[in-house]
């Protein structure tokens, strides 16, 4: 606040005029947080596919590290 009080009058008026727009909301009330369209009635198969995808992606670095350590004779 002290920086604003020390600013020239013209700058203070410009700062006071700046308004932050409210986020746009859809009129139907549904928000789309995913970068793709969620499948309607196939929630179980979608959940299984996502779980396999995330588990695979998380496991690959550890498997690669274990392979490298085994190859080097450290473990």
Summarize the structure.
It contains three helices and no strands.
Overview of the structural elements:
This protein is an all-alpha fold. The chain contains three helices and no strands. The N and C termini lie far apart (60 Å). The model has no long low-confidence stretch (mean pLDDT 75).
Give the SSE map:
Layout: H1 2-6, H2 9-17, H3 43-72
Strand content: under 5%
The overall average pLDDT, rounded, is 75
How far is the first residue's CA from the last residue's CA?
Answer: 60 Å
User: Roughly how much helix do the residues carry, as a percent range?
Assistant: 55-70%
Shape: flat
Number of helices: 3
- Rg for CA atoms: 27 Å
Indicate the low-confidence ranges by residue numbers. Answer: none
Q: Which H/E pattern describes the elements?
A: HHH
Structural class: mainly alpha
The profile of the biggest β sheet is:
none
What's the total number of strands? 0
């Amino acid at each position: 606040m002290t920086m604003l009080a020390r600013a020239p009058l013209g700058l203070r008026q410009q700062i006071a005029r700046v308004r932050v727009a409210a986020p746009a909301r859809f009129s139907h009330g549904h928000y789309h947080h995913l970068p793709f369209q969620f499948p309607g009635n196939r929630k179980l198969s979608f959940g299984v596919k996502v779980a396999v995808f995330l588990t695979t992606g998380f496991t690959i670095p550890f498997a690669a590290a274990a392979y490298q350590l085994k190859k080097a004779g450290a473990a």
